Each structure stands twice: as C-alpha cells, then as structure tokens.
Request: fold
Amino acid sequence: MGKSRARRFRRAGRFPAGPQQCRDEERGPEEEPAAELLDKLQHPSAEVREFACASISKLLQQEHVIPAFLQRDVVRCLGPLLMDHSLAVRETAAGALRNLSACGGFEVCDDMVTKDIMTPLVALLKECSTGLDANQLSPKKCGDMNKNYIEDIANEAINLLWNVCECNNTAVHIFNKEGCLDAVLHYIKKFSTNVDLAVSVANCLQAVTEDNPDLLSSFDASALQVLETVMLCPESTMKHVLLRTLIAGTIWNIKDSIPPGSLGSTINAILKIFSDSLAIDAGEMIIRMNEAEKNRLKLTADTETEKNMNDIIDNCVLNEDDDMEEIPKGKVRKENDISDLLPSDKWELKEVTALLMAQQTALEIIVNMCCSEDPSDDEWEELSSSDESDLFMENSYNEGSGLLMSPLCLSDEVNSAFLNNLIPKKILEKTAFPNSVALDICMHNPSWKPLIKKLNAVQCRALMCLHSILLVSDVDSLGGASALQSLAQHLSQLVFSKQEFPTDTEFLEAITSALRALLQTMASKNISQCMTPEQLLSLCEAGIRSSNASVRVNIVSILGISGSILAKGQDTAEMLKMIGKFLLEVAMKESSLVVAGEALDALFDVFADGEEAEKAALQIKLLPALKEFQPVFKMRIRKEGKGQYSTDQLCVLDNVKMNLRRFIAYQETVGKTPT
Reply:
C-alpha cells in the first residue's frame, strides 16, 4: 500500500476537562439514591440544593452510576440550577454537569446538547462575564477567605463548555451563533490573577477554533490583541507555559484571520513558544519539584508543631492569670506564622503536570503543521504526504547537536522560523526514554504516579513529530546518509535497549511509524539499513502480535522495505526466504484486510526483481501459494469490505487485488525464463 502518510492529531479524542472534586466528601453521598438526590434539587433551601449538587457531582465520577441519573433526566434537572439565585448552587451544579460530560463520553455530551444544556450554559457564561469585575467574594467560610464565586463558577462553566464543544458540532455552532467568544475572551483577561481560569479558557478556545471557519470573522483586531497579550505574558510558572502554548495553538488555528503582513512574525512567535516549552527538561523538573514538595511538607509540619506548642503555652498562661486579656486562638505570634504564605496543596505536582501538557500540546500542533489541513471526522486523520512540496531541512544529526530540520509546509518564513527556534533538535531529545530518576520518584509516590503516563505520551508525540518530519523532507535536506544512519541507530536503541520488547501500543505505533518513514527515506537513496536481520525479525515477530492494526501495518511495511533492499544484494536468499514466509503467513492469516493487503504489497516489493529474490521465491513456492490465496483474498474483500472499511481503504484494497493478479502473471513469466 506504498508510502506511509502523515497523520493529523485530532483533539476530540480526549476528555481533558476532568471531574471536579466534590467539596463535601465526608458526607458519603454514595448511599443516596439518584431519585432522592434529584428531588432535593428542587428544595427551597439553597444549602440543601448545594449539597444535592455536590453529592451528584461526586457520584457522576463513577461511570456505572451515570445511566441511573440519565434515566431520571439529570441534565434537565441540573440545567436550570446554572441560573440559581445562590452562587454556591450555580457552582456545584456546573461542577456536576462538568463531571457528567467528562465521565460520560461522546454520547452523553451529545445527549446534553440535545436536551438543551447550551441555553442555560450560554446565559451563565454571559452573566458571569458581565459580573466578572464585580469582585463578588464569598463570606468567610471553610477557611477560604478569598473565594471569588464568579470566577469559580466561570471556571466550571468553561470546562463544561470545553467538553461539549470537543464532542458535539451543534455545541460549536451555538458557540458561534450566540457570540460566546466575547464572553470567553473577557475571562482570559484575568490570566495575571487567575491562571487556572485562563488555562481552562485557552483549552476551550483551542477546541472551538479547530476547523471552525465560521468563527474566523469574530476575531477582529481587538480579539487578536487579547490573545497576543496573553501569548506574550512574561510569567515563568509552568501553568503560564501551558497557557502560552494553548493560546499559540489557538492562534495557529485562526491564522487565516491574521493580516498577511503580520503572519510571519506571528508564526515566529508561536514557534518560539513551542521551542521554549520543549526546551524544559521534564525529568529534571520532576526531581526539583519533588524535592520542593518534601521541603514544603517538612516546613508545614514544623510550623504546625510550633503553633501547637504555642497554643499549649498560651493556655497555661491564661489559666495562671484569669484577669489577663484573652488572646484569640490561632493569632499567637502572627509575625512568625507563615502558613498563609505557603503554596496551595500539591502545587509542585500541578506545575509538572502543566509542563507535560504544554509539551504534549506543542508536539501535537507541530505534527498538524507538518500535514495538509483537510479536515475529517476521524480522531486520527491520514493525509497523503507531499512529495512535490518545496520543503527543506538543514544541518544534520549527531550525538551532540541533534537533528536540525525545517519541515513546515506553508512558506519560507515558516520554515525559517522553525529552524531558527531549533525545534527539531528539541523534538529529537523528547523521543528518548524519560529520566530514570524521575520515573523512580513517580513510581514510589502514588500522587505522582500518573505522571508516568504523561511522560510516555510526550515521548510518543515526539516520535510522531519525527515521523511527520521524515515524510515531508528529502535526503539531502535531512543531512545526508550519515545523519540518517545516526538517527536510525537512535531509533533502534529505543526498540532494543530494554531487556524486554516494548508492548505499549501507543509507543509501538509511534516508534514503528518513525522507523517506517526513516527506512523509506533511506531506501529511496539506497542507504544501508540500520538493523541487523536478527533485529528485524525480532521486531516483526513481536510487533505482529500487537492488537493495534496500525502497528501491524507498519511492521509488514518495514519488512517489505528492508527485504527490497536485501533483494539487491548478494547471498541474501536465506534471509529473503524467512521474510517471504513471514509475509505470506500474515497475508493469509491476518484478520484485518488492511494489514493483509499491506503484507501482499510488501511481498510484491521484496520479490519484484533480482536473482536472490527469484531463488527465494522458488524455494518457498511463492507462486503457487499466491495463486491459491488469490480467490480467497477476492472473496474476503467482497464479504468483509462493505461496512467494515472506508471507501478509501476499499479503493486501496482493490488496487492490491489488481496488483496481485499482475504479480502472479509476472512470476509465471519469471518461472518460464530459462536460467
């Protein structure tokens, strides 16, 4: 099936605005039946309604509970409470709906839109935007003296909006029609005092601006100025790094609305932000932040101990002299009490999480930059690589400096900015396995353990970036044969450096995609391959067992590329026999027609020409095997094709079927040729 193709990341595959943590966990709402809790939403007491919303919010984090609430029309029960007279009820209702959208998935989000959740949500967003500067603080309760209800409600509402717009085109259409952009942009102006709200808005903006040309006209000079101000904010926290990255992604989405004279400088600013994000060593950040957390917890414990001792001493003094003026508890030695200055709980973990999300986002956008922009409804969009593009890459890869490349597909200005920011070098650095010390910290700290998945995700995105870069670049601009061979050694080490063969599906897809693209490029210029025959077969035998069809497609393609190179050499018949048997078995036994078709394609490449190939083909009885398999393959396409495969896939399979007939005819001619 030929050359691999660039694949575009689609944001709709993930539910980033995750569950809100319930504020009232100690009450144990799990025992409350859904019907009773929903009835309490109509109670005249605001406190009862707030408790019911909080209880529902916690329950909705459990996927198995969601159907019971949906059957009782939870969306229409909670929706009106978004405009409740009580601000606390509004916040908890928005949080419950956010959890429902995050934990329920695409179908639930569709159902929420069908049941008109957007009407009260849009009204809430606009009202919050109007009252954002009113500085409505909560009364002093639960120790939270500076709670701003309007901003907290807005944050929940924005996350709910983000989730439904990720999943439902009607929600995006309503966003456009109702002019929600102005309200959302007003929220993001709070980035200097409420970065969490700004990050939520930036995530939502990146979602609603993707493949949404109807929204472009709303981004006037004033709106672009707001985004530019946020994108250029100087703060250095990792949350601000994430904020800038998300806004850079939003501006990339709406680049068609930017005046032509400003486009070059804007894209340079976008790539500079991506470069700065990728330049940060996440492993070192984990080590530093973990140490900072330990120091903070120790300081907090020491402060609490000192405070308790002072309370004991004060009580003793008060008992000795009843006439002494009473000193309020908790106010003793206020000048030495630094508890109010301590960071919020787990801020170090939040900083690392923000960094990893920023790096993953930057890498995903760069992958999309390397692709043409033909939208699709698929989470992954496969697009043809551009063989005709005037793309270029400069310098070369070596152990010290990395691979310096410039693959972007818009203009010389973009390409130059890509290269000047050294982004390819930083991408290559991210393809390495995570820092072992950082991994050990995460493994032995339950709250940090989820970072392992995020570290691996960054590595996989970097490998997909590398795959895309390789597809849109020629050999000379990649730095020549030596640079490619060095890169091949690096990728081989990622596969074979561990004692056990990697089994993670996402990593396998990413690494085999990068290897496939690299081997295609090397084969096009007859550059010697990086893997030994033993490594090649080891990779194929392990990879073909993957449950992911894309991994299996990559595996047989890699084998076909390597086999076609071997067929041009001397004394390679034995290796070609092994490759031929492997590919025949895949073609005949593979459950996926796409993988079977790729295996046939690989066979055509390997045995297309050459004395060694002819010799191997005779010994493995390739021709009779293919003659016997031909009607089976045709029948499978007829029976399994419709309904299981896309139109494009069926066209490719028809092509393989035609090529199979031609290849059999060719092999029959070869067999009749006198030796």
